[in-house]
Amino acid sequence: MVLAIMLFAVTLLCLWAVVREVKRKNLFAVAFSFVCALVFGFFSIATIVKELKDMI
User: Fold this and answer.
1) Which pLDDT tens digit goes with each residue over 1-44?
2) Do residues 5 and 49 touch, judged by C-beta distance below 8 A?
3) Cβ atoms of 27 and 56 closer than 8 Å
4) Would you call 44 exposed, middle or buried from its count of C-beta atoms within 10 A (0-12, 13-18, 19+)?
5) Could you tell me which residues come within 8 angstroms of residue 36 by beta carbon, excluding any fewer than 6 positions away?
6) Nearest-angstrom CA–CA distance, 35 and 49
7) Distance of CA 54 to the CA centre of its chain
8) What tens digit of pLDDT does each residue of 43-52 get?
9) Using CA atoms, how far apart are residues 35 and 21, in angstroms rounded to an integer?
10) Rounded to two decimals, what is the model's pTM?
11) Burial of 23 (0-12, 13-18, 19+ CB in 10 A)
12) Are 2 and 48 in contact (CB under 8 A)?
């Protein structure tokens, strides 16, 4: 569960980076941060689902 929390924290940082880079109009950084947010978000949700299934 610790891994899922850490992945979720990285997802939040990536989303913050997306907002910050949109303000700066740095499109490469926006794209990179958005892709990172998607990947880390997916893995954090998948890890949480797996942990909850293992509890049942």
Assistant:
1) 899 999 999 999 999 999 999 999 999 999 999 999 999 999 99
2) no
3) no
4) buried
5) 10, 14, 17
6) 21
7) 23
8) 999 999 999 9
9) 13
10) 0.86
11) exposed
12) no
